[in-house]
Amino acid sequence: MKEPARILVVGGGYVGMYTALCLQRKLRQELRRAAVEVVVVDPDPYMTYQPFLPEAAAGSISPRHVVVPLRRVLPHCKVVVGEVIALDHSARCATVETPATKEDGTGGLQLPYDELVLAPGSVSRTLPVPGLAEGGIGFKTVEEAIGLRNHVLEQLDIASSTRDPAIRDAALTFVFVGGGYAGVEALAELEDMARYAARYYHNVEPADMKWILVEATGRILPEVGPVMGQYAVRELRARNIDVRLETRLESYEKRVAVLSDGARFPARTLVWTAGVKPHPIIAASGLPRTERGRLRCTAALRIEGVEHAWSAGDAAAVPDLTAEGPAKPDEPRRECAPNAQHAVRQARVLADNVAAVLRGEPVVDYAHKYAGSVASLGLHKGVAHVYGRQLKGYPAWFMHRVYHLSRVPTFNRKARVLAEWTLAGLFKREIVSLGSLEHPRAEFELAAGTGRHHEAS
């Protein structure tokens, strides 16, 4: 019996999940005859819809509705929970470390393939800032978002219960580094939540809190354009949020944030959202890359100069066929921005092209003109630059919600998110910290006489 053609999808994010989803629709007949097998490998059994992380952190959406279970939406694909630790494309084989291989010490599962879709996404880009690795908090996963929510509410508890002014000030100082979507939206949503929560503390006022946004360039939210970016700065500053442009974090030793402008802030909270970099497996693959470490791809989403290998999204440098105007001399080609809007659309074209190759049909190029961007600045506040039109305030916030509700996968998730938004509009916010979830065995260990009280984060 002839072996099925195996399509290996590395990564279960936007590109990985949407590519597999489109493949199982496009190749329905082949999958039914077992002529094709689609294998998806990702360290997590779910896809995280990252634009909803700020709202999950603020408690507007339940964490379980920010993630999409891969096995539920990909019933005709094989989902392997694990991480690709080695890739030999010349032999068309990937080595995958799964929870089972860690236990049995076999050194990894060998997965041969016929077509490779390499879309592991990106990881947080950190800098060698003293103290950052020890005390910083990321904001890229749902676990980090919920951990940050619990941490912020815990700081209010600490400030409310201490008599030491230094501890109180540090607990009520929140520093966010990075003025892109993640940093601005996370800060805006959490500041909204903390200001609301303060009404339930008899000795904590919103004015007691310091919220600081640090951005190395001269603007925030560059995707929404300079005018809306300037409006966002004014809106944040009107809420007493300290926005510091052209400023860098120099160190965070002993929980003191030292900035390049000379300012020093004792702070128990430092959130790092200053950019991302390609996943390490990209460099380890030996496939062609650009100077920035992304996979060099053709407009058809093939990895340049390599047969049977495809990529899209954060990991891929895809030429932008709709770019207007000549490229700069030191920039031989314009590339699609590594954002969710392009990733989802590229995934559909990628799936069509992989299916076309298996069927001996011609492939097509990816061409999509960027429609614009939307960003939330907290409840009922936002900015948007869509199809050349600029919106701010409530209309932009409403457009932000409508757009992302339309983009989140599956009707099930859309219905649940809409229901939560509706209930949130009718009832008061939840302001409960469940920090103990991060140490679920602590109580049992204490009862058994082997545990210690965990230090407040």
Fold and architecture overview:
The chain is an alpha/beta fold. The chain folds into two domains: 164 residues, FAD/NAD(P)-binding domain (3-Layer(bba) Sandwich); 198 residues, FAD/NAD(P)-binding domain. Helices cover 34% and strands 21% of the residues. The protein is built from 15 helices and 24 strands. The chain has a five-stranded parallel beta sheet with strand order 5-2-1-9-20. Helix 10 links the parallel strand 12 and strand 13. Helix 1 packs parallel to helix 12 and helix 7 packs antiparallel against helix 8. The longest helix has 20 residues. The mean pLDDT is 89.
Distance between the termini: 58 Å
Work out the helicity level: 25-40%
Top CATH class of the largest domain: Alpha Beta
Contiguous runs where pLDDT drops below 50 for at least 5 residues: none
CATH fold-type name of the largest domain: FAD/NAD(P)-binding domain
Features:
457 residues; alpha/beta; FAD/NAD(P)-binding domain; 2 domains; five-stranded parallel β-sheet; 34% helix; NDH-2; FAD/NAD-binding_dom; oxidoreductase activity; EC 1.6.99.-
Give a quick summary of the entry:
This protein has 457 residues and is α/β, with parallel strands linked by helices.
SSE map:
Layout: E1 5-10, H1 14-26, H2 28-32, E2 36-42, E3 46-48, H3 53-58, E4 67-69, H4 70-73, E5 78-81, E6 83-88, E7 93-97, H5 99-104, E8 109-112, E9 115-118, E10 122-124, H6 132-135, H7 142-161, H8 165-171, E11 173-177, H9 181-197, E12 210-214, H10 226-238, E13 241-244, E14 249-251, E15 256-259, E16 264-266, E17 269-272, E18 276-278, H11 280-285, E19 295-296, E20 309-310, E21 316-317, H12 340-358, E22 372-376, E23 382-386, E24 389-392, H13 394-407, H14 411-426, H15 442-447
Parallel strand pairs: 1-2, 1-9, 2-5, 9-20, 11-12, 11-17, 12-13, 19-21
Antiparallel strand pairs: 3-4, 6-7, 7-8, 10-18, 14-15, 15-16, 22-23, 23-24
